[in-house]
């Protein structure tokens, strides 16, 4: 259940703690309310030294701070099914932040059970999507717990948060300054940047916005080719070397990012009804999903591809909207899993100046047949059968014209 931040005195609260501005302010604020706050830092590959984050939370006054490595679980139970689903919200965003939120909420619930807390908390605002993801996930798996969102309830804007942090001597990232007040979220699958000057949709992001992708104009002048091997819809090798999905994402992200692949600048429809300008970096996600789609085009029938496209859109919406642990999501997972049984093969990508281009693909059970498709001598396609096929295919159109005349005439 979700409620306001009132009556927190003496209550044990487990806070999803990133070490950033929002959650550091939340932690201090809970202490001012007389609550007993615990911090939970979940390592999803965001790059922060975990022990530094723990020390920061303890230094602010947390009763305890838990650091949990959840990278493998994140990759195998959240990113992997999203890859199979080609999950891209709005056709562009690989959902790396949205995929991490149900896992964080799940771990918050586990930590709350450990310490006997009645409340869990997060640093989401009232305008964002994360509040929905945390709250709905908790309602789905632990409806007895109360969810608290101080940032949403206190109505403090970003400059006020910075002033509060400075007043109380709270440590926060040097990237958060009055000159460059970006809100950043990152994990091993991607990085998001918003707020500050980026809220003007006509403002061109400057170099300080990006961290894991090169400016395409400064990227190498020579392309790099990579081969991604897939088994039943999941990438399992890079350039012939078999890797865990976690290692593959990291390695591919580095090489694709070097070539400026994965920069996304989009106007996004948030669940709360507003449009927002979002900047993302997702070199591995953009590259893998492009390759995965190419392999599916070789191994799935036309009807399955067309139907799956609609499923993919709904899957992305459910993920974005915080409905990961729901019956519909489980049902879509079952359908998608069935489609991936034959999606095994290799895709070659050309990485160059901000683009990842499919330039080759092979598959063990390819439905593509050169003998049928070729225009050279020796084709096995029976061209003599085409005239009869066209006659039957066009029969409804011919029948309509016979009955109603030429509908294109005035």
TrEMBL record:
Major site of localization recorded for this protein: cytoplasm
Matches recorded under PROSITE patterns: ARGININOSUCCIN_SYN_1, ARGININOSUCCIN_SYN_2
Enzyme Commission numbers on file: 6.3.4.5
An example Gene Ontology molecular-function term: argininosuccinate synthase activity
Domain Arginosuccinate synthase-like N-terminal: 12-171
Protein residues bound to L-citrulline: 93, 129, 133, 183, 192, 268, 280
Key words, A-Z: Amino-acid biosynthesis, Arginine biosynthesis, ATP-binding, Cytoplasm, Ligase, Nucleotide-binding
Binding site for ATP: 16-24, 123
Localisation: Cytoplasm
Alphabetical GO biological process terms: argininosuccinate metabolic process; L-arginine biosynthetic process; urea cycle
Catalytic reaction equation(s): L-citrulline + L-aspartate + ATP = 2-(N(omega)-L-arginino)succinate + AMP + diphosphate + H(+)
Start and end residues of each Arginosuccinate synthase C-terminal domain: 182-399
Short name of any one Pfam family annotated for the protein: Arginosuc_syn_C
Domain of life: Bacteria
Entry GO terms, CC: cytoplasm
InterPro entries per UniProt: Arginosuc_syn_C, Arginosuc_syn_N, Arginosuc_synth, Arginosuc_synth_CS, Arginosuc_synth_type_1_subfam, AS_cat/multimer_dom_body, Rossmann-like_a/b/a_fold
Binding site for L-aspartate: 125, 129-130
Family (UniProt): Belongs to the argininosuccinate synthase family. Type 1 subfamily.
Assembly and binders: Homotetramer.
Protein name as catalogued: Argininosuccinate synthase
Organism: Rubrobacter radiotolerans
Organismal lineage: Bacteria, Bacillati, Actinomycetota, Rubrobacteria, Rubrobacterales
Gene: argG
């Amino acid at each position: 259940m979700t409620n306001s931040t009132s009556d927190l005195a003496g209550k044990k609260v487990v806070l999803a703690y990133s070490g950033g501005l929002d959650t550091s302010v939340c932690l201090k604020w809970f202490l001012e309310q007389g609550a007993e706050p615990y911090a939970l830092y979940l390592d999803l590959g965001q790059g922060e030294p975990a022990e530094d984050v723990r020390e920061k939370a303890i230094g602010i006054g947390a009763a305890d701070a838990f650091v949990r490595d959840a990278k493998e679980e994140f990759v195998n139970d959240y990113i992997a099914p999203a890859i199979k689903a080609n999950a891209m919200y709005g056709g562009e965003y690989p959902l790396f932040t949205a995929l991490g939120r149900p896992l964080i909420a799940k771990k918050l619930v586990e930590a709350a059970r450990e310490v006997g807390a009645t409340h869990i908390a997060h640093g989401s605002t009232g305008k964002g999507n994360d509040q929905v993801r945390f709250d709905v996930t908790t309602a789905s798996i632990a409806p007895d717990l109360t969810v608290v969102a101080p940032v949403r309830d206190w109505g403090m804007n970003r400059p006020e948060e910075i002033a509060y942090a400075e007043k109380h001597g709270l440590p926060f990232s040097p990237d958060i300054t009055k000159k460059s007040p970006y809100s950043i979220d990152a994990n091993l699958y991607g990085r998001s940047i918003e707020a500050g000057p980026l809220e003007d949709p006509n403002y061109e992001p400057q170099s300080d916005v990006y961290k894991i992708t090169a400016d395409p104009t400064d990227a190498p002048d020579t392309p790099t080719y990579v081969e991604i091997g897939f088994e039943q819809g999941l990438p399992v090798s890079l350039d012939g070397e078999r890797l865990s999905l976690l290692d593959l994402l990291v390695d591919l992200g580095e090489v694709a990012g070097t070539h400026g692949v994965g920069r996304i600048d989009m106007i996004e429809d948030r669940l709360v009804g507003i449009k927002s300008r979002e900047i993302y970096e997702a070199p591995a996600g953009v590259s893998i999903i492009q390759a995965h789609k190419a392999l599916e085009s070789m191994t799935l029938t036309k009807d399955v591809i067309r139907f799956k496209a609609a499923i993919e859109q709904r899957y992305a919406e459910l993920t974005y909207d915080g409905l990961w642990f729901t019956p519909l999501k489980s049902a879509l997972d079952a359908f998608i899993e069935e489609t991936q049984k034959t999606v095994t093969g290799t895709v070659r990508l050309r990485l160059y100046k901000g683009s990842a281009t499919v330039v080759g693909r092979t598959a063990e059970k390819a439905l593509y047949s050169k003998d049928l498709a070729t225009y050279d001598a020796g084709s096995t396609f029976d061209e003599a059968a085409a005239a009869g096929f066209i006659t039957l295919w066009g029969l409804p159109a011919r029948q309509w014209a016979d009955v109603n005349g030429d509908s294109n005439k005035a």
